[in-house]
Structures are given as C-alpha cells and as structure tokens.
C-alpha cells in the first residue's frame, strides 16, 4: 500500500484536503502527515480543524495551512486556489460533503443549493483550477481523489440529492482520469460504502437484519491512497466490491436499485 512517504515522493510535499477536520478527513490527514506531507486543511468546523492541525504539526513535524471556509460560498474556490498556487500543491483529496437522510420533498431550496455547491460545484471548480495551474508540466505527477459513495451508483429513497451529487463526482473523475492523463494527472473516484465517521454514526442507522459492512475511516483512506494512479474508480472493501458486482453484473438495474432503496429504508425507518 502507498503511504504518506510514497505519496510525497510521487506528488510533492503539499496536499489539499477539503473536509479535513474529522472522520475520513482526519484519517487522510494522519496517513499523509505520517509520511511527511504538508497539508492545506480546509473545513467549516474551525475548532476541530485548528486542533487537528496543531496535533499533526506537533506529532509529525509537518506544516499545515488551516483554512476555515464554507465551501458552499463561490469565493471559497479562489481562496483555496491562492494557497495551492503559493505552495505548488500537486495533490488534492476532496472529502467535503453535505449529507442528510431525508425525503426529497422535505428539503428547502437553500438545502438543495448547498448539495449542489458543496458536493458538485466546488470539486469541479477546484479540479479545473488545479488542472489550469499545472497545465505546463505533463512530466510532473499530479493527483486528485474525489470521495464519492455507493449511494451514487443507484437511486435510493432518502438519499436523492446526496446520491445524485455523488454520481456527478464518479462520472467527473472517470472522465478526467482519461482526459487529463496526458497532462500528468492521476484522477480517481473513491466510491466508499458505509464508514464509521462521526457524520455517519450521527444518522443512527438501525441495522436489524440488514447486513451492512461498516469500514473504519483509516482503512478507507489508506485503500484510496494506495489505489490512486492505478484506476479511475475504486471501491474500498471486498464486501462492498462483492455487493457492487452482484448488483451491477448479476441483477437488472431496476431490481438492484429497488434492493438498495429498500435497504436504506430499513436502516432509517423513521426518516
């Protein structure tokens, strides 16, 4: 598996990590910092962000740039690109996401806008910015990981805007994996299943007889880092990959989507 040290050798000494304060972001940060990578840490949770950054600097003797921003605000992209330019950052992990378990008609227009801004517009803008900044040197490796979700593979009740925006990231990464390869970019969508992050645990899923394999953030982050540069689309966890195989290669899509949606409904019967 690639670890922080190998990532530094391939992609340089700085990484942009959006959604860095806790959960998967924290796992990515620690994996990269352990190998000596400096990190541009972006998150809306300022206290957690500042605390984790100080911890990483103290324990791993790296540098951090901690940016407290709301990624739903359009001007946030310009601020982040300024720091990327200042540090010559060549690696980006977009882990930030807006997510709720809710029926579609219960959302406000502002909430729907937030899904689009945080989960779709901002990663697209930052990828475009990175590609524009590093357009001149195709021999120098650049890496981009867009965190997606298995919820983006099939339409499911209670997950409509979340799944739709994660599907956007899967297609964006898969397309750019091919389009930007000649410019020295490794682009990958990490399509994670249930992961024991604070955000996921806060949804209070009720498992009952539903067989769900929940991975740790550390395993997901390490698996994603080790797969960058090898493929356009990666699903961490062999059980998740088996489910993907069964639901895409064995069953018709309409049946697979029905199974996925029914399982989600059983996890959240009160939603």
Keywords summarizing the entry:
single chain, about 270 residues, alpha/beta, Rossmann fold, seven-stranded parallel sheet, 10 helices, 7 strands, about 50% helix, globular
What would CATH call the architecture? 3-Layer(aba) Sandwich
Query: What share of residues is helical?
Result: 40-55%
CATH homologous superfamily assignment? NAD(P)-binding Rossmann-like Domain
- Low-pLDDT stretches are none
CATH topology label? Rossmann fold
Give the number of domains.
Answer: 1
Describe this structure in words.
- The chain is α/β, with parallel strands linked by helices and 271 residues long.
- The chain has a single domain (4-267), classed as Rossmann fold.
- The chain contains 10 helices and 7 strands.
- It has helices at residues 4-11, 24-34, 46-60, 76-87, 109-133, 160-179, 198-202, 217-227, 238-250, 253-267, and strands at residues 14-18, 38-43, 64-68, 91-94, 142-149, 185-192, 233-234.
- Helix 5 runs parallel beside helix 6.
- The longest helix is centred in the middle third of the chain and has 25 residues, at 109-133.
């Amino acid at each position: 598996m690639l670890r922080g040290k190998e990532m530094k050798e391939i992609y340089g000494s700085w990484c942009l990590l959006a959604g860095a304060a806790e959960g998967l972001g924290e796992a990515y940060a620690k994996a990269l910092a352990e190998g000596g990578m400096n990190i541009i840490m972006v998150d809306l949770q300022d206290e957690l962000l500042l605390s984790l950054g100080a911890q990483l600097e103290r324990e791993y003797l790296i540098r951090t740039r901690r940016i407290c921003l709301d990624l739903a605000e359009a001007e946030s992209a310009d601020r982040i690109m300024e720091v990327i330019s200042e540090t010559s950052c060549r690696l980006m992990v977009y882990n930030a996401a807006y997510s709720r378990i809710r029926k579609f008609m219960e959302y406000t227009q502002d909430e729907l806008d937030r899904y689009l801004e945080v989960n779709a517009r901002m990663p697209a803008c930052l990828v475009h910015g990175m590609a524009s900044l590093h357009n001149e040197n195709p021999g120098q490796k650049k890496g981009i990981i867009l965190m997606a979700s298995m919820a983006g593979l099939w339409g499911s009740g209670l997950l409509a805007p979340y799944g739709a925006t994660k599907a956007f990231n899967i297609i964006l990464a898969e397309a750019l994996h091919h389009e930007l390869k000649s410019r020295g970019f490794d682009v990958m969508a990490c399509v994670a299943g249930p992961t024991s992050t604070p955000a996921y645990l806060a949804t209070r899923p009720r498992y009952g007889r539903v067989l769900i394999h929940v991975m740790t953030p550390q395993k997901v982050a390490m698996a994603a880092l080790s797969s960058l540069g090898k493929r356009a689309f990666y699903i961490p966890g062999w059980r998740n990959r088996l489910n993907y195989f069964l639901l895409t290669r064995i069953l018709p899509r309409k049946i697979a989507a029905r199974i996925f949606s029914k399982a989600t409904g059983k996890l959240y019967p009160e939603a």
